[in-house]
Amino acid sequence: MEIDFVANMGSRRYYIQSAFQIPDQEKERQEKESLNNVDDSFKKIVLVRDVVKISRDEKGIVTMSIYDFLMDKDSLGKC
């Protein structure tokens, strides 16, 4: 259980998990498991290669496309 990236910007922190795709609920659970084990209120993001609508689950974890993340300079503000 590991988190792929941790980014710090001043007092902000982002936990980022990357996945090629999330074809089913088991893969989604697997990708989010390490993020669910982090006990703080910083933003947690799962990036996928597929084009997906930005969504937030009941625990606050955001799933978005890598394209939105890289091409939209305000993508972290949408999380």
Describe it:
A 5-stranded mixed sheet has the order 1-2-3-5-4. It starts with a strand and ends in an 8-residue tail after the last helix. The chain has one domain (5-72). 23% of the residues lie in helices and 32% in strands. The protein is globular and about 35 Å long. It has helices spanning 25-36, 66-71, and strands at 5-9, 12-19, 43-48, 55-56, 62-65. It is of the alpha/beta class.
Keywords:
79 residues; alpha/beta; five-stranded mixed beta sheet; globular
Low-confidence stretches: none
pLDDT averaged over residues? 92
Helix content: 10-25%
Question: In total, how many domains does the architecture comprise?
Answer: 1
Strand order of the largest sheet: 1-2-3-5-4
- Give me the number of helical elements: 2
Q: Radius of gyration in whole Å, from Cα?
A: 12 Å
| Shape annotation | globular
Strand tally: 5
Percentage beta strand: 25-35%
CA distance, first residue to last residue: 23 Å
Give the SSE map.
Elements: E1 5-9, E2 12-19, H1 25-36, E3 43-48, E4 55-56, E5 62-65, H2 66-71
Parallel strand pairs: 2-3, 3-5
Antiparallel strand pairs: 1-2, 4-5
